[in-house]
C-alpha cells in the first residue's frame, strides 16, 4: 500500500469543503461604534473579528484572505458596504461559495427593513440606510452556486434613546422577504421577537459565539472531519436556546433557505488529525498472516475514514477502527466487519470498496449483514461482554452494536431479553431496539416474562411496547400479556390490551412446558377482576362466565370486552344491565354526592335545633309549668324522629353509593368506561 494513501485524508476533506472547480469569497461587517453615539453596541466588532478569523483560518474556513473583506465601524459606511457587495457580484463565479456576515443595527421603516450603516441617519433611513429591496437585488445578482448569509442584527435604532441597547434580531423573512434562491441559506440569531443574549465572560453574543465554536468543529457530531449545514444548524439551535434559558431569556435561531443539508461548510481540525493517525495505524496493520489485514481490507478501512458512514455496517466498522489509536485493535473483528460490509459499504460504491477481499450481499431493508455463520461469533461475543458491564453506558453501547449486526447476532437474544428488566431506562430501550433489529424469537420469552412480572411500572410498559412493535413474532408472550389485564394500574392494562391486539393468535397448548392454556389464563384474570367486588348483591357467579374454548385467539374468540368495539359480556343479567347504563350510573353518583352533602348540612342544622328549641320553650313557658313540660317533650320527640329519618336516608345513600362505585370499578377494569 502506498504511503500517499495514508496522507491524502486532509486533501480529500479539503476538497469536500472547497471543490477544485470553485473558490470562496466573504464579506464580514461589524458595527459597534456609530456616528450617532446613541446607537453604539457591545460585542459587534468582536463578533465580526471572530468570524473573519474563522473564515481565513487555513485549517478551518479556508477562505483566502484576499477574498474576504472585513468592515469594522468607520469602514462600514453605506458606500463601503455597497462597494463590497458590488465586488462580490463581480468576483464570485457560478461554482464559488459566498459567505456574508452582518452584526449591527437594522430598523423597520415604510414596509421595509434597513441595515443601518455606521454613517446612517435614523431619521432618514430611506436615504442613508440599505433597504431590504436593495439587499435582495444585490444578493440575487451574485452568481455564486452557494450563498450563506449570517445575521446578528437588530432594530434597536427605532428606540435610539436606549442607554445600552442589545440586539433584538429580525427574522430572515423580514430581512429578505423576496429572497428565495436555490443554494441560498440564511441564519439569523432569533425570530425577531426575542432579545439576543450576550455572553459577558466570552465577550461575544451567544449566536456568534456558538456559530464560531460550531464551525471550528464542535458541531461535527459524526466526527468525519467536516461540519455540514445540517450539523451546524442542530448544534447552533440547541446551544443558543440553552444559553438563553440559563439567563432567563428566550432566544431561538431561525434558518431559512434551500440548500443540501450535507453541504460542507468548514473543517474540523481535531477530527482531521485523528483521521490521519487512524490511517497510519490501519496502514501499519496491513501485511501477510492471519493477524494482519490484507491490502484490500486495509483499503476498505482507509476509504471509510474519508467519508461519513452510510450504512449500519460502516458505522460499526468505524467504531472498531477508532480503537486502533489506543492500540486496542482486534484484527479478527475488523476482518469480520469488512467481510459483512462488502460492496454495500457505501451509498456509492468506489473502486477501493470493490477491493474488499470477501464481498458479501445484504438483504434490502435489513439493518444488519446476512447469514448466521460462525464468522460473526467473535464479534457477537465481544459485544456480549459489554452487556455484562457494570457501567450502563457500556451496556447501551453493546446493545446498539448488536442491533447494527442484525440477524447474525441471534445468539445474543436471550442476554438482551434478560436486560429488559434493567433498572436503567436507556439500557432497556437499547436492548428493545436490538431485539427488534435481530428479530424476536422464543429465547426472549423468559426475559420478557420476568420483565412483565416486575414491580416497576415503567419496566412493564417498556416491555409491552416492545411486544407491540414486534407484532406476530411475539405471539409466544400472549399468556404473560393476558395476566396484566387485571393489573391495578390502568396504563399497564391499556398497554397490555394494545400489545395483545398486535400479536398473533398462537397460544401455548396444555402440557407444553407446563404453560397454561388461554382458557386457564382468562379464568385466572377474570377471578382476579371480580374479586374486587365484595358486595353480595352484585358479586357475579364465576361459573356463569363463558370463556372461549378454542386454543387459538382469533378475532371471533378473543376475550369478550377486550377488543371488540361493542363487547357482549356473558355475565348475569343484573350486572349486564348496570354495565349498559354506565354513563347514567356516573351521573347518578354525582347526584348522590350532592344529596349526601345536603343531608349532612341538614343534620347539622337539626342538631343545633334540638339544642336551641327546648331552651326557647323553657323561657317562653316558664310561668306555665304544665305547658312547658308537654311542649319540650313534643318538640324533643319531633326533633329526634326528624334526626333519625335524616340519618337513615344518609345511610341508604351511602350504601347505594358504595354499591355503584364497585360496579364502576368493574366497568373500568373491563374498559367500558373511563
Main sheet properties = 8 strands, mixed
| Helix-strand makeup class | alpha/beta
User: Based on CA inertia axes, which overall geometry fits?
Assistant: flat
CA-based gyration radius: 38 Å
How many separate domains make up the residues? 4
Low-confidence stretches: 155-181, 343-373, 505-523, 525-575, 669-674
Fraction of residues in H or I helices = 40-55%
| Termini separation | 71 Å
Helix segment count?
Answer: 24
CATH class of the largest domain: Alpha Beta
Mean pLDDT: 72
Into which percentage range does the β-strand content fall?
5-15%
Total number of strands:
12
What is this structure's SSE topology?
Blueprint: H1 9-17, E1 24-30, H2 44-55, E2 68-72, H3 78-91, E3 97-109, E4 112-115, H4 125-128, E5 130-131, H5 132-140, E6 146-154, H6 172-175, E7 184-188, E8 198-199, E9 204-205, H7 206-218, E10 226-228, H8 229-246, E11 254-258, E12 264-267, H9 269-285, H10 295-304, H11 312-322, H12 331-341, H13 377-387, H14 392-405, H15 413-418, H16 425-438, H17 445-452, H18 457-470, H19 478-482, H20 490-502, H21 518-530, H22 573-580, H23 582-620, H24 625-669
Parallel strand pairs: 1-2, 1-3, 3-6, 6-7
Antiparallel strand pairs: 3-4, 4-5, 7-11, 8-9, 10-12
Helix pairs in contact: 2-7, 7-8, 9-10, 11-12, 13-14, 14-16, 16-18, 18-20, 23-24
Amino acid at each position: 500500500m502506498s504511503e500517499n494513501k495514508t496522507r491524502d485524508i486532509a486533501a480529500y476533506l479539503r476538497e469536500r469543503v472547497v471543490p477544485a472547480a470553485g473558490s470562496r469569497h466573504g464579506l464580514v461587517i461589524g458595527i459597534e461604534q456609530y456616528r450617532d453615539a446613541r446607537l453604539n453596541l457591545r460585542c459587534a466588532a468582536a463578533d465580526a473579528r471572530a468570524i473573519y478569523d474563522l473564515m481565513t483560518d487555513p485549517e478551518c474556513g479556508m477562505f483566502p484572505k484576499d477574498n474576504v473583506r472585513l468592515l469594522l465601524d468607520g469602514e462600514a459606511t453605506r458606500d463601503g458596504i455597497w462597494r463590497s457587495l458590488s465586488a462580490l457580484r463581480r468576483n464570485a463565479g457560478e461554482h464559488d461559495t459566498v459567505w456574508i456576515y452582518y452584526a449591527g443595527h437594522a430598523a423597520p421603516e415604510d414596509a421595509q427593513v434597513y441595515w443601518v450603516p455606521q454613517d446612517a441617519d435614523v431619521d432618514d433611513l430611506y436615504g442613508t440606510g440599505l433597504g431590504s429591496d436593495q439587499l435582495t437585488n444585490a444578493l440575487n445578482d451574485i452568481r455564486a452556486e452557494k450563498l450563506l448569509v449570517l445575521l446578528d442584527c437588530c432594530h434597536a435604532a427605532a428606540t435610539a434613546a436606549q442607554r445600552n441597547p442589545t440586539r433584538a434580531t429580525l427574522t430572515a423573512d423580514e430581512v429578505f422577504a423576496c429572497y428565495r434562491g436555490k443554494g441560498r441559506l440564511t441564519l439569523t440569531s432569533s425570530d425577531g421577537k426575542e432579545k439576543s443574549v450576550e455572553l459577558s465572560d466570552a465577550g461575544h453574543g451567544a449566536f456568534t459565539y456558538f456559530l464560531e465554536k460550531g464551525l471550528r468543529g464542535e458541531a461535527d457530531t459524526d466526527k468525519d472531519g467536516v461540519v455540514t449545514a445540517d450539523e451546524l444548524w442542530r448544534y447552533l439551535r440547541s446551544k443558543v436556546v440553552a444559553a438563553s434559558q440559563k439567563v432567563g431569556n428566550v432566544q431561538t435561531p431561525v434558518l431559512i433557505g434551500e440548500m443540501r443539508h450535507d453541504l460542507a461548510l468548514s473543517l474540523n481540525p481535531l477530527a482531521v488529525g485523528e483521521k490521519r493517525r487512524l490511517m497510519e495505524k490501519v496502514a501499519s496493520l496491513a501485511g501477510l498472516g492471519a493477524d494482519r489485514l490484507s491490502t484490500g481490507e486495509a483499503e476498505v478501512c482507509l476509504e471509510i475514514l474519508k467519508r461519513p458512514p452510510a450504512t449500519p455496517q460502516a458505522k460499526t466498522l468505524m467504531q472498531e477502527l477508532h480503537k486502533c489509536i489506543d492500540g486496542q485493535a482486534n484484527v479478527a473483528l475488523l476482518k469480520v466487519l469488512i467481510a459483512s460490509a462488502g460492496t454495500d459499504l457505501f451509498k456509492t460504491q468506489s473502486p477501493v470498496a470493490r477491493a474488499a477481499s470477501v464481498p458479501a450481499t445484504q438483504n434490502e431493508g435489513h439493518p444488519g449483514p446476512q447469514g448466521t455463520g460462525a464468522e460473526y461469533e467473535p464479534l457477537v461475543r465481544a459485544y456480549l461482554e459489554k452487556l455484562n458491564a457494570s457501567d450502563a453506558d457500556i451496556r447501551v453501547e453493546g446493545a446498539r452494536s448488536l442491533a447494527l449486526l442484525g440477524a447474525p447476532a441471534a445468539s445474543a437474544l436471550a442476554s438482551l431479553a434478560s436486560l429488559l428488566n434493567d433498572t436503567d431506562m436507556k439500557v432497556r430501550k437499547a436492548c428493545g431496539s436490538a431485539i427488534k433489529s435481530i428479530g424476536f424469537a422464543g429465547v426472549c420469552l423468559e426475559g420478557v416474562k420476568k420483565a412483565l412480572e416486575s414491580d416497576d411500572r415503567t419496566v412493564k410498559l417498556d416491555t409491552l411496547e416492545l411486544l407491540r412493535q414486534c407484532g406476530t413474532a411475539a405471539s409466544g408472550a400472549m399468556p404473560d400479556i393476558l395476566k396484566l389485564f387485571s393489573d391495578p394500574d390502568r396504563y399497564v392494562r391499556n398497554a397490555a390490551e394494545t400489545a395483545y391486539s398486535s400479536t398473533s393468535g398462537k397460544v401455548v397448548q396444555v402440557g407444553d412446558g407446563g404453560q397454561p392454556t388461554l382458557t386457564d389464563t382468562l379464568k385466572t384474570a377474570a377471578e382476579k377482576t371480580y374479586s374486587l367486588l365484595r358486595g353480595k348483591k352484585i358479586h357475579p357467579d364465576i361459573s356463569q362466565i363463558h370463556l372461549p374454548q378454542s386454543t387459538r385467539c382469533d378475532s371471533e374468540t378473543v376475550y369478550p370486552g377486550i377488543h371488540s368495539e361493542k363487547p357482549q359480556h356473558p355475565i348475569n343479567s343484573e350486572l349486564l344491565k348496570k354495565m349498559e347504563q354506565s354513563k347514567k350510573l356516573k351521573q347518578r353518583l354525582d347526584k348522590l354526592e350532592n344529596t349526601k352533602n345536603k343531608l349532612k348540612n341538614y343534620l347539622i342544622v337539626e342538631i343545633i335545633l334540638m339544642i336551641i328549641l327546648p331552651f326557647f320553650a323553657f323561657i317562653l313557658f316558664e310561668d306555665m309549668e304544665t305547658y312547658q313540660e308537654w311542649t319540650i317533650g313534643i318538640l324533643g320527640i319531633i326533633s329526634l324522629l326528624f334526626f333519625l329519618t335524616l340519618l337513615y336516608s344518609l345511610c341508604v345513600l351511602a350504601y347505594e353509593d358504595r354499591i355503584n362505585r364497585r360496579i364502576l370499578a368493574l366497568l373500568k377494569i373491563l374498559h367500558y368506561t373511563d
